[in-house]
User: Which sequence fits this backbone?
């Protein structure tokens, strides 16, 4: 199976920059989106052979996630599930985390697929405390799913995990996306039974998935790797490829990909 994840930074804008051409060409089983910045009914983007599942933010023009898939799921869940002391999961639209359209979960007989748009800690780290709580609750959620069946989750995780994952680590140490706190949360997640597929298969490769629109960053390849495919440890041996499509334009992020046998 082939999966693609792309933070499109506004799907309506990206649709005018070759999105459909790449979508059709790549022919993925799952095409996962983040930062769609849409409300229901704003764009009629249908692809033959695919169903789509959308989590919209309450705030217009903000956040939003979606999955296009060729495979009809057993269930689709919107927002982050809340895990109780017994490991049971409930989906509550009133959950603080579920107003921003950040998670779609599709359940299949033998695995889950999730698209995720992790909150940015923002300038001055004014949202870092909330981000830390979000990280803890998201780990509890995916760990609870993983106890049931293997998990594949992807998206803009808004963290460059190691120094190899961004062009200028020294000057970004206390900037959003490369704080010690954010990196430690991602290390904790990986230590809880998950693998960063690209870094596992390409331990020394320098490749980025996001570039600032300022200072000709993409032209200079002064980027960050903040878009990921993460899988449960036990299915990492099934992963045959993890890719970063930095030849594809249309957003300040490029698509990332995964090939896996399930």
Assistant:
């Amino acid at each position: 199976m082939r999966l693609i994840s792309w933070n499109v930074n506004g799907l309506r804008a990206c649709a005018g920059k070759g999105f459909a051409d790449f979508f059709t060409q790549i022919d993925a089983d799952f095409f996962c989106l983040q930062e769609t910045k849409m409300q229901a009914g704003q764009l009629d983007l249908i692809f033959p052979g695919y169903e789509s599942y959308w989590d919209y933010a309450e705030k217009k023009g903000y956040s939003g996630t979606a999955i296009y898939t060729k495979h009809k799921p057993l269930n689709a869940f919107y927002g982050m599930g809340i895990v109780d002391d017994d490991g049971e999961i409930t989906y509550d639209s009133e959950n603080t985390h579920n107003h921003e359209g950040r998670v779609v979960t599709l359940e299949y007989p033998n695995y889950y697929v999730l698209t995720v748009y992790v909150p940015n800690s923002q300038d001055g780290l004014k949202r870092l405390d909330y981000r830390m709580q979000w990280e803890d609750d998201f780990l509890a959620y995916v760990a609870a799913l993983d106890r049931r069946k293997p998990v594949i989750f992807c998206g803009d995780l808004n963290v460059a995990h190691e120094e190899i994952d961004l062009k200028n680590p020294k000057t970004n140490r206390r900037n959003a996306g490369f704080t010690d706190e954010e990196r430690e949360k991602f290390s904790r997640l990986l230590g809880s039974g998950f693998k960063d597929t690209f870094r596992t298969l390409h331990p020394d490769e320098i490749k980025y998935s996001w570039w600032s629109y300022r200072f000709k960053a993409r032209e200079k390849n002064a980027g960050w790797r903040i878009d990921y495919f993460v899988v449960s440890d036990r299915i990492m041996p099934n992963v045959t490829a993890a890719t970063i499509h930095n030849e594809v334009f249309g957003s300040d992020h490029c698509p990332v990909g995964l090939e896996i046998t399930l």
